[in-house]
């Protein structure tokens, strides 16, 4: 009990610091905590509540979620409901878009346990039928006709698709979005391309690498990779923003601590992100790790 109280104190202190520092994404943080309280009231499952309440927004999502929300707000008339296909983003974004922005959201996710968790949590969201779930989760072969949606959102997902699946997924996103619609992506970047493998799978969809490197986890894109990825005739780049660590190497050390200590580290995410990540504009980083936000228009 003492440890849980200390975590709560640490989380509140981190949030106060983030507010003073002007960290973006705090609207999503507040929504995630409200959703956690609603779920606790309905399910009485304190363990699940604690994790969701103490870490409603994970690390760089404090920058990625506002980028996606603002891209949609700029692309479409303010206050107009749109049909959005969300492809496996962290669930807080599509839930927020359905409840707070009033969009009609269809969620797909190939990770069946994670999708089931989203379906269970949806009982506590006030979405009035605006949140839908598709059992088919393959981003490289979407089960929807051409021109089915006004927008696709895909936050920190395509980097986990092995081989050339990321390019095929983007072709599929382009196919199902109506002309004039938008695709909003984020994914990790480094000065030079890097593939990351892990010894244990993090998702149920991962398979072992045939060369014995473990399980493919994600790729970090360099600038050339990004240009090749979005080189699709019907796509136009509308906006690009980079959210980058400081100092160089900080994120790798943070990630190791996160894996080892869990909530003891991530409960401080608002503080850590306010101090160690920033929006550096449209220029690819030369010596640091970060994420890129892309707002693409389908012509």
What does this 3D model show about the protein?
- The protein is α/β, with parallel strands linked by helices and 299 residues long.
- The protein has a single domain (2-298), classed as Rossmann fold (3-Layer(aba) Sandwich).
- The chain is built from eleven helices and ten strands.
- It has helices spanning 2-21, 26-43, 46-54, 61-75, 92-99, 112-121, 165-176, 223-229, 250-261, 263-266, 269-276, and strands spanning 83-87, 104-108, 131-134, 149-155, 177-189, 194-198, 215-220, 235-245, 277-281, 290-298.
- Strands 3-2-1-4-5-10-8-9 form an eight-stranded mixed sheet. Strands 6-7 form a two-stranded antiparallel sheet.
- Strand 1, helix 5 and strand 2 (104-108) form a beta-alpha-beta unit.
- Helix 1 runs parallel beside helix 11 and helix 2 (26-43) packs antiparallel against helix 3 (46-54).
- The chain is globular, with a radius of gyration of 19 Å.
- The N and C termini lie far apart (56 Å).
- The mean pLDDT is 92.
């Amino acid at each position: 009990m003492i440890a849980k109280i200390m975590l709560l104190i640490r989380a509140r202190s981190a949030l106060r610091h983030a507010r003073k520092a002007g960290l973006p994404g705090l609207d999503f943080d507040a929504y995630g905590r409200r959703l956690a309280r609603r779920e606790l009231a309905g399910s009485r499952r304190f363990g699940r509540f604690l994790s969701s309440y103490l870490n409603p927004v994970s690390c760089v999502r404090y920058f990625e979620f506002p980028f996606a929300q603002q891209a949609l707000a700029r692309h479409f008339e303010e206050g107009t409901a749109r049909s959005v296909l969300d492809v496996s983003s962290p669930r807080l974004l599509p839930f927020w878009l359905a409840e707070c922005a009033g969009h009609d959201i269809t969620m797909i996710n190939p990770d069946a346990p994670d999708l089931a968790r989203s379906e269970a949590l949806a009982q506590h969201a006030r979405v009035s039928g605006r949140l839908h779930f598709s059992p088919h989760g393959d981003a490289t072969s979407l089960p929807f006709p051409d021109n089915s949606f006004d927008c696709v959102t895909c936050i920190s997902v395509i980097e986990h698709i092995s081989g050339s699946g990321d390019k095929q997924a983007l072709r599929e996103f382009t196919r199902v979005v109506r002309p004039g619609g938008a695709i909003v992506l984020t994914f990790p970047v480094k000065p030079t391309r890097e593939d990351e493998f892990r010894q244990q799978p993090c998702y149920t969809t991962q398979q072992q690498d045939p060369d014995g490197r473990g399980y493919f986890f994600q790729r970090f894109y360099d600038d050339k990779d990004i240009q090749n990825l979005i080189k699709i005739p019907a796509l136009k780049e509308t906006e690009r923003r980079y959210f980058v660590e400081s100092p160089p190497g900080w994120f790798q050390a943070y990630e190791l601590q996160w894996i080892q200590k869990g909530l003891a580290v991530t409960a401080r995410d608002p503080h850590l992100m306010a101090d160690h990540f920033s929006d550096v504009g449209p220029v690819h980083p030369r010596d640091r790790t970060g994420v890129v936000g892309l707002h693409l228009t389908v012509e």
